[in-house]
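Handoff note, outgoing to incoming analyst
You'll be picking up this chain. Sequence as last confirmed:
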Amino acid sequence: MKLVTFMKTGEERLGLLAGDVVIDPLLAVGDRAVFSSALAFIKSGATGIGAARAILRNPPAAACAALKDIALAAPIRPATILCSGSNYKDHNAEKANTPISGKEPEFFVKTADCVVGPGEPIAFDERFSKKIDCEVELAIVIGKAGRFIPVDSALSHVFGYTIVNDVTARDRQVRRTPEGMTWYELGSGKAFDSGAPLGPCIVTTDEIADPQKLKVMSRINGDLRQSSSTSNMIWSCAELIHFFSRNFTLRPGMVIITGTPAGTAWSADKELGGKGVHQPGLVPATRYCLPGDVVECEVEGIGILRNPVAEAMAGAGRVAAE
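Most recent structure output, in case you need it:
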């Protein structure tokens, strides 16, 4: 099952995605409490899943609209996005690393303030950063609460999966001493307006048999920049759920992002410790993202999250129209 959030008369509505059709469950005489939002649906558990399947079996024509005619929003706006950096060995090989890179998950947080949906701009503002980089990542959507969750039962706490572009301000993230030590300022470099494009949909776990066997890719202006598999993660989805549940009670609607593979623009930035490693089959970056670029993040079985980069305007959170 695939869930989207779409705009209707200026409001966000939960939708069920069936091929190239979006079904509005509220127009299909769905339970208003269950289908009022993605979070309400996730919290409803088996009740919501059963009701949605019944609608999908026989959707009324009045509840259906072509996906091409629908404006999608982020499928969920998680209050908390728990993030793991340096979780692919090939990415670690292309950049400057901290003493803990590859030895334990690098823990940082993004919030709902960072989230934008499909098609919404990633803001470029030189007053904040001149080195905006993009990272395709598989995102885990939590469905069942728990703390100190064992690895062997961790995936039972998952509702589904989506895509996050972990947009990063490299010139705010990477710090280096004259002696050559590197550390990351993950707050300033990771958490900011439009720093977490998310979507286009959430795919429930019954459609993804193994989250460690998914192809992940990103393209910028059509050039293939990243191409790997979640099998190359250092810590699996189950291990990351266990790791983050030590700090937080994981709750329905929380999102965990799982790291990015090689192919980032950072690799070409020798000033910040980029090692210029060329991955076969990829188009190496020669610069960071600039206004006018179009970024596509793709994960097998989920879809493509597409966002333009646009010049920021005066005023928080606003970008120039394309």
